[in-house]
Amino acid sequence: MDLLEAGVPSVPSRAIQDRLDMEAKPASPRPRHFERHVQPCVAELLGSALFIFIGCLAVLEEPGGTGRLQPALAHGLALAVTVAVLGDISGGHLNPAVSLAVWLLGGLPTAMLIPYWLSQLCGGAIGAGLAKAVAPSEHFGNASGAAFVGITAGEQVPAVLGAEIVLSSFLLLVVCMGTVNGRTSTPLAPLCIGLTVTADILAGGGVSGACMNPARAFGPALVANCWDYHWVYWVGPMVAALLVGALVRLLMGDQATRLLLK
């Protein structure tokens, strides 16, 4: 006996199909090339330029009596705001060492690592150039263009290099655990990152300058042509990135992060 003979009204198949179509969720479009490749690099370029411009200008225009406080606050606040604004586009790395550590944890595609580095270095040069353009020439000369020139003799290198590794490791641990590791990630990560930079500069600025960022070292060095012991400010943060990446992948990361090893 069919439904009509049983007195049960039938529902047209067209109405059923319409209801299913209304309830079905539309498929999300795949990200386009611009959003996946171009836009993150532009964000890294712009963010690095603004962050390093603020940092350099704070060093060049530091009034007497404030010591490391003004540069520490300027770097920390500028980084926190920039990461918060641009983090959803590129991750807000703004630092080749950060990009290396995030790549080691699987948070950055291999094809984007070199473009990120180039964007950050170009941003550093732009930011340092803008700082030179707006600062009085005597301030620029007195501060060596905000470049890191604290090493004056070879015997200082071990202490400076050790300080850069430890200070950078602290920063990179906060970045990796606060943004990449799922179990410990937090919406307060930009603030935590900025506060870490501030604390590092206040604590280690007198030892190594507390660079922690090869792009921050490269931009002013290029603009001011100050290359003495420049390699220290690359080796320190990059070694820290390898150490922190290995630490999080092998020991500190959650299960999803550690499964990337398999």
Give an overview in words.
By secondary structure, the protein is mainly α. It is built from eleven helices and no strands. The longest helix has 28 residues. It is globular, with a radius of gyration of 25 Å.
Distinctive features:
262 residues; mainly alpha; 68% helix
Task: Write a concise synopsis of the structure shown.
The chain is mainly alpha-helical.
* Shape summary: globular
* Main sheet: strands, sense, barrel: none
Number of strands: 0
> Which regions contain 5 or more consecutive residues with pLDDT less than 50?
1-6
How many helix segments? Answer: 11
The pLDDT mean sits at 88
Report the structural category. mainly alpha
User: What proportion strand?
Assistant: under 5%
Task: Give the CA-CA distance, first to last residue.
Answer: 59 Å
Q: Give the % helix.
A: 55-70%
C-alpha Rg (nearest Å): 25 Å
List the helices and strands in order. HHHHHHHHHHH
SSE layout and pairings?
Layout lengths: L12 H11 L9 H28 L8 H22 L5 H9 L5 H25 L2 H6 L14 H24 L8 H16 L9 H11 L7 H21 L2 H5 L3
Helix pairs in contact: 2-3, 2-5, 2-9, 3-8, 4-5, 4-7, 4-10, 5-9, 7-8, 7-10
